[in-house]
Structure formats: structure tokens, C-alpha cells
Amino acid sequence: MKPKVKAPSSEITGHVINILKKYSLNTVCEESLCPNISECFSMGHATFLILGKVCTRACKFCHVATGRPYPPDPSEPYRLFLAVKELGLEYVVITSVDRDDLQDYGASHFKRCVDFLKSRLEVYVEVLTPDFMGDVNALHTVASSRADILSHNIETVRRLHRLIRPKGDYDRSLEVLRFYSTYGKPVKSAIMLGLGETRDDLLWTFEDLRKVGVEHLVIGQYLRPSYKQMPVVKHYMLEEFKEIEECARSFGFKEIFAHPLARSSYVRGLK
To answer: What keywords is this UniProt entry annotated with (predicted)?
Structure first.
């Protein structure tokens, strides 16, 4: 059965949207058509999408636009700070589109945004990063920032990875997570169900994630944003999510959030 959510209420989300527009900021909540947008916005929570809203890749599950992005805006860290302050946030998630057009893949811009916030506000910051093409210097730039938690989503199992993420690489994503785990900060990843994976596929992925040091795991249902993206192969029942969560726990993750509407940056997710 397909998960059902309430349509976002303009009354609930209006305040957050007005602040985002005021400071010309993007959120992955809006760009990816997240099903939890109403709940998160009603609680003053948003996952900020930096470095523009045009991606240089075209993953088959994602609704974010693909094309040639504009150069990074040097004023974005300041505008982000103003929005976070006005919203009164205590926990901030910062993510971005892939910027393979940039020399450092946008890593230095990530660091500026994080460090600007942390130097001016008492706020917990999670970064949810692209793979930066596995560039060690770029990864170090972000990992050495003042971010409190380092995240990178594996998204799907090895067998389906090249199909779902044509410009991604399963092993490269694992190496990103392994690299992050050496910095003494919590490391988090997420996987979508419903793209054609098997139980064995999932078990191998859980094992791979634990081997590279992932401690926090989010498991959610893939929901097709539009007809342009991959179709859903299976809608998992809540009971199946509970069973998969129990299987994942046997691998030793510290925290797991498994639910049809779970997303890596969901307000009721892991912190």
C-alpha cells in the first residue's frame, strides 16, 4: 500500500516559506517534493539546499533539476545564517546538488556555510554531502569543518546502483563514508526501498555500511516524484520495515530510523 501523507498546508508552511524567500534560499524539502514537508515546516525545520538548485547529475530517483548551474553565491553563508537565526533553529541540515563543474565540487562552500553558522549560533549542524567524486581534498575540507555529523547517502544497493545513479559509484560512496569515519564524528547514511532490491541485497549493503564505519542509518520508501523518474517496484508495508530494521540492528548500528516516510533529513529522524 502506498504511504499516505497530508497535503502541505499553506497556513502551516507559509511562515517558513516566507523566510526562505526573504533570504533567497532553497530547500531540498521543496525541490525533491519531500512527503514530510508539511510536518517539518510546521515545526520550523528545513533542510537547506546550498550551491543552487540545478544539479550536474541526473539520478533516476531525483526530482531536482539537471543542467548547468550558476557559480556559487558568496553571500549564501550569510543569508543562511540570517534564516536559521530568524527561524530559531537548533538543528540544521545542509545538503547540496552535485557540483561536478567546480574544481573542489563545492566543498569549500560547504565549509564556509557550516563554519559561519557555528561561529555565530549555538546550533547543531549536519552536512549531507555528495560524493565529491571521491576527491580526498574536498572530503577533508568538509570533514574538517565544524559540522557535528557527517552524512552521505548510499541510496540503493550495489546491484542497482549504476542503474539508479548513472554518474555515481557504490564503492566510491563507501569510501566517502569510510573517510568521514576517521574524523571522530557520527557518520550517517540512508537507503531507499522499493527500487527492486532483494533482502540479500539489503543485508550485503548493511554489512558494507558497518564495515566503513556508518553508525546511523535511515531506511525509507522510494516514492516516485513524477513520471520522469524510476517507477516504484514495490511499496513495503510497515511490518516489513520493522522486520528490515531488526535485521539491520543485528549489524551493530547505533541508531536506525526505518519507516515508509523516513528521509535522511526528516525532523523525526536521527540526530
So the answer is: 4Fe-4S, Cytoplasm, Iron, Iron-sulfur, Metal-binding, S-adenosyl-L-methionine, Transferase
Helix orientation angle between 107-118 and 76-87, rounded to the nearest 10 degrees: 40
Bridge pairing between strands 26-27 and 47-50: antiparallel
Helix, strand, coil percentages in the chain from 3-state DSSP, rounded to 5: 40, 15, 45
Q: Is 265 annotated as a binding residue?
A: yes
Question: If pLDDT is split at 50, 70 and 90, which confidence band does 2 have?
Answer: low
Report the SS3 class of residue 11.
helix
Non-local (6+) Cβ contacts of 118 within 8 A are 125, 146
Residues 173-182 have pLDDT tens digits of 999 999 999 9
Q: Could you tell me the fold of the domain covering 12-188?
A: TIM Barrel (3.20.20)
Instruction: Give the Cα separation of 48 and 19 in Å (integer).
Output: 12
3-state DSSP assignment of residue 154: coil
Cβ atoms of residues 43 and 267 within 8 Å: yes
C-alpha 170, offset from chain centre: 16
Instruction: Check the annotation: does 113 bind a ligand.
Output: no
- Label residue 16 by pLDDT band (50, 70, 90): confident
Cβ-contact 127, 94 below 8 angstroms? yes
Residue-range domain boundaries for the chain:
12-188
59 is in an annotated binding site: yes
- At 119, which amino acid appears? S
pLDDT, one tens digit per residue, over 191-249 is 999 999 999 999 999 999 999 999 999 999 999 989 999 999 999 999 999 999 999 99
User: Has 247 been labeled as part of a binding site?
Assistant: no
Rounded distance, CA 163 to CA 167, Å? 9
